[in-house]
Specification:
Elements: E1 2-3, E2 9-10, H1 12-19, E3 34-35, E4 38-39, H2 53-68, H3 70-81, H4 85-108, H5 111-130
């Protein structure tokens, strides 16, 4: 078992795998800098720090459309059901955008934005299980 700085415990091998992608606690999202005596590299930089401006704009547009445009959402879902690669790529961008919104709104303490984004992520997860 490994104890994070926030006090939560996790399977050591599981949290090491998690830390390769995110250095926030899976339970409370508090950042951690060490696993035991080992320092952890900052791995959860905003996706936007690593992407070109055109891709960032596309992620923002797709995420906004997903959240507020029912027709766009239904078309994307229909495309995913048909295994359309463009629809699946759009969904991937939406998941990235929603994940960033959750991280930022959690840090800012904006629970209503966090809740809305988590709701949409849950619906996407459920849809993907059904595919």
């Amino acid at each position: 078992m490994a104890r994070l700085e926030c006090g939560h415990y996790f399977c050591k091998s599981c949290i090491k795998k998690w830390a390769k992608h995110q250095n926030t606690c899976p339970q409370c999202r508090e950042r951690f800098t060490r696993l035991g005596s080992q320092p952890v590299e900052e791995t959860n930089q905003q996706v936007e720090d690593r992407l070109d401006p055109e891709t960032i704009h596309m992620i923002h547009r797709c995420t906004t459309d997903w959240m507020f445009d029912r027709e766009f959402r239904n078309e994307t879902i229909a495309g995913c059901i048909e295994k359309n690669i463009e629809s699946l790529q759009t969904l991937f961008m939406v998941v990235n955008g929603l994940t960033n919104i959750v991280n930022i709104s959690t840090e800012r303490g904006d629970s209503s934005v966090t809740a809305l984004s988590v709701f949409h992520l849950s619906r996407i997860r459920q849809m993907l299980r059904e595919l």
